[in-house]
Amino acid sequence: MSITPIIEQCRARLEDPEFGSVRQWKARHPGGKAVGCFPVYTPVEIIHAAGMLPVGLFGGGTTIELANADARFQSFVCSIAKTTLEMGFQARLKPLDGLIFSSICDVARNLSSVVARNFSEFQVEYIHHAQNMTSPAAADYVESEFRRVQRNMEKLSGGAISQEALAASLRTYNRVRGLLRRLYEIRRESPHLISTVELYVLVRSGTLVPPEEHLQELEQVLELLPARQGRPKDRVRVVIESAFCEQPPLDLLQVVEDAGCYIVDDDLLTGWRWFVEDVPEDLPPLRALAESYIRRSVYSSVRHDGPRPRTAGLVEKVRRAGAQAVIFMPAKFCEPALFDYPLFRVALEEAGIPHLVVEFEEKMWTFERTRNELETFVESMLFD
Ligand code: SF4
């Protein structure tokens, strides 16, 4: 058996515009509730511990035409905000009962209130993440915020969330994130064994099913991968940066790979892989999550820096991955990504790491110009 049928199944799941896997889960769990998690980071353990299904909510991608959302947002707003709202107007969010947003940017904050105002059928939650990561009170603050989320998830599910259930969910998600880290390591070491398109499909489709089901898929893929045939090719090793919220179309990732790149690290779907190591299992669960948010999470343009700036984090990531270059992939109008670009650029220039900027929109469907730019960049790297 090969991993191809698993990837194909995952791709069908994520390309289903009607959240078919969520509907199936609800059919199997009468009365069960599902909660959409807008990027970037949501403490999904709390939702899972309440017996509900956390669901990745990444906008409508290429599958939706804007008919109503344009009138509620300025023209210079990122696409994911508009298509997420449009999904509400076109009843595509119907399988969801709750929606969680967080303080990643002004757009996400406004989206949260616009959704709440237009769709009273959803319980809408907004998480205020820590602004000061170095304060001794930061972990206390995050813990109290997660406790508030817990109370609201209890209201939505209609039952109390026990410490035991939280601890069990934390262990489950630790296992998922651990296997994802392992897959990222394999791609870093042997990018010819699993492409980024395949890895991305696997990770993203996992946000649409219970973590237990996702675990099985990840375990199967990890078991089958070593038997995969293939030889390393002469390609440029790159890191993709700035695609942490709105997600690039799969075709764009394919174009990057076809242009002669091995993507050896990225920040795609980063919120679902948020911790650099396991969340401690010997602390009270919310405390462990809060401390981990402060001390064990990845650097990000939407997470305030701790003692180490994210510019250093990017350079370190490039070195660790043995990458030769960075491809910045900000979504059009994404302020956190675009505001960080000048800082990252200076850090990369100082470190002597070349980069290319490839701006995208989730509904992008022509890639000719991008393909040419990428091929020129790759050639300049290979024949330098
Ligand atoms: S794509 Fe950027 S601007 Fe838009 S909601 Fe996400 S973080 Fe905010």
List the helices and strands and how they pair.
Layout: H1 4-15, H2 20-28, E1 34-37, H3 44-49, E2 53-56, H4 79-89, E3 98-102, H5 106-118, E4 123-127, H6 138-157, H7 163-189, H8 196-205, H9 211-224, E5 236-241, H10 250-258, E6 261-266, H11 285-295, H12 310-321, E7 325-328, H13 335-351, E8 355-357, H14 368-382
Parallel strand pairs: 1-2, 1-3, 3-4, 5-6, 5-7, 7-8
Helix pairs in contact: 1-8, 4-5, 6-11, 7-9, 8-10, 12-13
The structure holds iron/sulfur cluster.
What topology, given as strand order, has the largest sheet?
2-1-3-4
What's the total count of β strands? 8
Distance between termini?
A: 41 Å
Total of helices = 14
Bound molecules: iron/sulfur cluster
- The helix content is 40-55%
Spans of at least 5 consecutive residues whose pLDDT stays below 50 are none
Rg (CA only): 20 Å
Give the topology string: H per helix, E per strand. Answer: HHEHEHEHEHHHHEHEHHEHEH
Average pLDDT for all residues: 96
Shape: globular
The largest sheet is: 4 strands, parallel
Structure summarized in a few sentences:
This protein is of the alpha/beta class and about 375 residues long.
Overall description:
By secondary structure, the protein is α/β, with parallel strands linked by helices. The chain is built from 14 helices and eight strands. The chain has helices spanning 4-15, 20-28, 44-49, 79-89, 106-118, 138-157, 163-189, 196-205, 211-224, 250-258, 285-295, 310-321, 335-351, 368-382, and strands spanning 34-37, 53-56, 98-102, 123-127, 236-241, 261-266, 325-328, 355-357. The protein has a four-stranded parallel beta sheet, sandwiched between helices. Helix 1 (4-15) crosses helix 8, helix 6 crosses helix 11 (285-295) and helix 12 crosses helix 13 (335-351). The longest helix has 27 residues, at 163-189. It binds iron/sulfur cluster. The site of iron/sulfur cluster has 14 residues, from helix 4, helix 5 and helix 13.
